Amino acid sequence: MSNLDRQAVPSRCGGRGFVVAEPVRELLSPRRVPLGESTEVRRLLPNLGRRMVGAWAFVDHYGPDDIAGEPGMQVPPHPHMGLQTVSWLHEGEVLHRDSTGSLAAIRPRELGLMTSGRAISHSEESPVPHPRFLHGAQLWVALPDSARHTEPRFEHHTDLPAVTAPGITATVILGALDGAVSPGAVHTPLTGADLTLTGGAEARLPLDPDFEYAVLAMSGETHVDSVPVLPGSMLYLGCGRTELPLRAESDASVMLLGGEPFDEEIVMWWNLVGRTHDEIAEAREAWMTGTRFGEVKGYAGDRLPAPELPATPLKPRGRVR
């Protein structure tokens, strides 16, 4: 998925200087951002208060939207570098095309994982015809320096491992949780899981104390470590936890995101992740001149032009603003 903000602002984030080394309960509110022709997303990362959770650097939550009479998601071809995109649906269907030639229809509880490496471009659209409702999350994972210049690739996993306990099922999207390991490729120690809870369920989820965590509420009302978290909001939990108490007031679903604090500082602008302003500027120029990022074939429309870079130089801001 693309960041369609025409006033894209570069930011430097990452590094361990602002990692919360102990458990906290920091509720993050979203910023509403239009996406394509008829979709609005709730952006949780980067946030005014926090920019990363482990290597997770970008989190959008959208829907549930009734798109029966609408085009639904329509994101034209656009570039990515230095990151992985994670597409996760609860309802609907999204058609993914990319410059490696991949074409995949991503459906609920299936993992669409695109590793951009040095450069890739892709489009995302609701197919015609499409299901009535669209509800999901789009997330980015920053690649470490050792992996960010690799060849691009796309993975589509329809069978993911799950951890179950009375009243809760945890589908492991990326990384590992309680011994279950996702087939999706990761390049830093990471956890991404979709937790489905039945109304009245209480559980204590095992965590890695060396990871920092956050919980994104998808539906229903869940009390996360005694904090009520409603759909479209995210609770940052810090590090140092060995378990996480959960209680569902009704049938609910949340996403657990975590990982070792990301050591490297990154510059994230528009849909590109690099290390310097010059690197981002070179990538933007390559996209605008039609080089390096390849071609998305089969999309009925024009490519997405890049916004203008700001005139001011980048300033380090760390993991929090």
UniProtKB/TrEMBL annotation:
Domain Pirin C-terminal: 193-291
CDD domains, A to Z: cupin_pirin_C
TM regions (residue ranges): none
InterPro entries (UniProt xref): Pirin, Pirin_C_dom, Pirin_N_dom, RmlC-like_jellyroll, RmlC_Cupin_sf
Domain Pirin N-terminal residue range list: 41-141
Superkingdom of the organism of origin: Bacteria
SUPFAM superfamilies listed in its UniProt record: RmlC-like cupins
Family that this chain belongs to: Belongs to the pirin family.
The protein's name in its UniProt record: Pirin family protein
Biological classification of the source: Bacteria, Bacillati, Actinomycetota, Actinomycetes, Kitasatosporales
